[in-house]
Amino acid sequence: MRIANREIHFVACHQLPERSFHFRGKQFPVCARCTGIYLGYVFYPLFMLSIWYLNPTYTFMLIIPTFLDGMVQAFSRYESTNTIRFVTGLAAGIGLVSFMCITGTWLYNLIIKLV
Fold first, then answer.
1. Helix residue ranges, H only, the chain
2. Which residue, among 41, 31, 28, 101, has the nearest Cα to 70 in the 3D structure?
3. Where are the domains of the chain?
4. Would the pTM of this model clear 0.85, i.e. be above it?
5. Residue-wise pLDDT tens digits, 38-52
6. Which helix H or strand E contains 8, and what residues bound it?
């Protein structure tokens, strides 16, 4: 992330105007897919506090649609909508925080067994 001319630029996101949401004439600092992913990160406390749990199969099933949408778009003439990008990004964000918690729990248990 870099800040230039009082605007935030996320270097990992392409920030194309046609693939971004706009609010009151201003473009979001990230594209629709990244907006969904970052919004999915909001669910992290639910996983961390064990309020919500997804098994690894469902976790990866949430991530796959974003991967497929991005790859199909990159290597074909198909162009998805911002709504599809946002929804698949949101699912991926939730899947990623679930994956982080599953991995963290696994590492914790592994370390505890070593001690």
1. 32-40, 44-48, 56-75, 82-114
2. 31
3. 2-114
4. no
5. 999 999 999 999 899
6. strand 7-9
